[in-house]
Amino acid sequence: MTKRSWKTNPFIGAGLVALAVVAAWLTYREVKPPRRAVEYAHVLKCDNPDCGKVFVESYPEGQKPPFPCPSCGSPAYPALRCLGNGHIFPLKKDSLSRSPYDCPICGTRGVPLEPGDPAVTEQRANP
Q1: Sign of torsion, CA 81 85 90 94?
Q2: b/e for 85-123, b at 16 or more Cβ within 10 A?
Q3: Backbone angles phi, psi at 95, to 5 degrees
């Protein structure tokens, strides 16, 4: 009768390695810190022509526009300022003929507004 050990029998060795990997994975899963949701501040413009509010909202990473306007509940999109005439317009795909980054009035490229811009009428945080 031969002496069997984990060193000579490959099945026993592989089983021990698999057991060690599973134990390490379970330990890591319990010890690692929980992932926190990252929030980003967006400068948004209400798409309702009667409202047109420009405001700042924080939304979790991965949430896509449109976002609700706090004043009227209409859809709001990221706000852009035209480099040609200063017009503030929402970044949305509303036409096949132009880029959503182009001003609807003059066609010049728009740039995103920053939260500290004077055009921002309200600063809020979404809980």
Answers
A1: negative
A2: eeebbbbbeeeeeeebebbeeeeeebeebeeeeeebeee
A3: -150, 145
Backbone angles phi, psi at 68, to 5 degrees: -75, 140
CB contact at 8 A, 112 and 120: no
Average pLDDT over residues 45-59: 88
Is 127's pLDDT higher than 50?
no
Q: Are strands 39-46 and 67-68 parallel, antiparallel or unpaired?
A: unpaired
Cβ-defined contacts of 90-93 (< 8 Å, 24+): 90/44, 90/45, 90/46, 90/47, 91/65, 92/47, 92/65, 92/66
pLDDT at residue 15 in the model:
83
Count the neighbouring beta carbons within 10 Å of the beta carbon of residue 55.
21
